[in-house]
Structure formats: C-alpha cells, structure tokens
Amino acid sequence: MTLAGPLYGTSTVGLHLAQKVYEVGSTPSSAKERIDHVAGHINLCSTLFETLGQQLEEGPLKISDKAETLLKEINDLSLQTFDGIEDLLFQRKTGQAQTSNLLQTSGMPIKKARIDLFAGEIRYLRLTANLLLTVLCLARVAEPRR
Hints:
elongated; 146 residues; two-stranded antiparallel ribbon; mainly alpha
C-alpha cells in the first residue's frame, strides 16, 4: 500500500517537532506544562502513524476506499497541525526557526489558547489514528478466516 511512506514521513516530522517543543518547554515559563502536554501528544500521535505504516507494510490488506481516504486526510491534517504548532512556537526568519520565549511576547493569552486548541486537535487526530489502527489490526486477524 502506498500510504505507508507518507505515514512514516508524518511520524518523522512529528517526532522532530515533539523534540523541538520539549526543548521550548525546558525553558522556565508558566506555559511549560501546556507545552509539555502538546509535545507528549505529538509524540504519541507520531508513534501511532509509525505503527499504522508498519501495519500497512506487513502484507496485503484490503481496506475500503473510505478508509484509505480517511488515512490520507488524517495524515494531511496532522502535517497541517504540526506546521501550525511550529509556526506558533517558533519564529521563522530567513528560513531558520528561532525559538520564541512565550513569556516575552505580548500575545501570551492568545498563544496559550492556541496551544490548548492544538492540543485538542492532536488528541482528536491521535484518537482517530488509534481507531484506524485497531480496525486494521482486526482486519488483519479476520482476513485469514475469509
């Protein structure tokens, strides 16, 4: 299945972002807990994408067109969410990411709300990916019986 590669790519992007977010969270700030929370969800989501990719590579598995479309949409939404988090937490100047200190910015309440929003989006993506993984695993178990 051709979806395994993009899922691995999303997993790698997420794991790198989680590491960067953990580094931002290691600076003293009142937003540290929120940032660590988001980084943890990114990490879990990325691991799920890696596991989904492994399931798809294990061998032939027939999935419906709807399931394939959903996998692609979740993958794309995850990349968009990861980009949004990176844009929020890092200022991009001349192509290089510069860490921004969340406490030194004037829009801190807005950033806290956006951090919470991204955490909710990642939880949704993670839960959906987890459900898809469960369905794929069950389909793999049930397939020999057909």
